[in-house]
Amino acid sequence: MWAEVSAEAWSTCGLRARLRGYARTLPGTSSSRRRALLPLALAASALAVASAPAPAATSAYVALGDSYASGVGAGKTSGACQRTRRAYAYELGRRVSAFRACGGATTASLRRSQLAAFPRNTRLVTVTIGGNDAGFVDVIETCLFGAADHCDTRVRQAEEFVREDLAERLRGVYEAIRERAPQAKVLVVGYPRLFARKRWCSRVGEIGDTEQRRLNEASNLLARTTQAEVGRHKGFRFVDVRAAFNGHGVCSAAPRLIGVTSPLTDSFHPTARGQLAYARVIKRRL
Is 31 a residue of the active site? Predict the structure, then answer.
């Protein structure tokens, strides 16, 4: 911006000097006549400044969502919403105008607490939401500490909810975002498959191979359902991160997801490297 102002100032001074010089060279030009020409120089210089293009306004970026977006598991968090600057929103290399993602958020709580007025120049919104609506925490705890048949029953219940109810809830969120940011590109960021299908590696609880497969299938259903709803909204794009976590699930040699922690708060969330993987995929969709 300063370079533009400096250039305008120099061109204005040059214009004034040329007009004064022109007045002095006119045959028979008196000092009074030269004084009469001075306002013309000033008017011309003002016109030059007024016609110069204004600097482009910086576009705003708003980050919404649940714990996968707030950065739980990626490093030290703060506040009730467990936010961290290691979250993918900050790893994109863009200025974050409003970071509203909140651990534990559902579609309903997002609409209540994260959709305050957006900056008028919002041009990018990211959102990860829906996992908690499907009962993410309860499903994981049931499969971690319960019998295999209890795990399968709970996963089936979650899948039934995703098939029958989730799309409508997501639709309400997407429409509310569009209302607040009519010109923004909206990236709906999904969830990874959690398990690498390896032998269980934690001393706390157990999720066997069959349960790991069922939970990964549920993640696939969640991704398909979300992507289908996103496709109905102009200006929205689905960001599928599943491939970025292939071979990097819980109990893999190089996990991008945290295993079982005590307390369970950080369990099954992306690590700092997992958030970087998220950011790399999102950048390709910008």
Answer: no
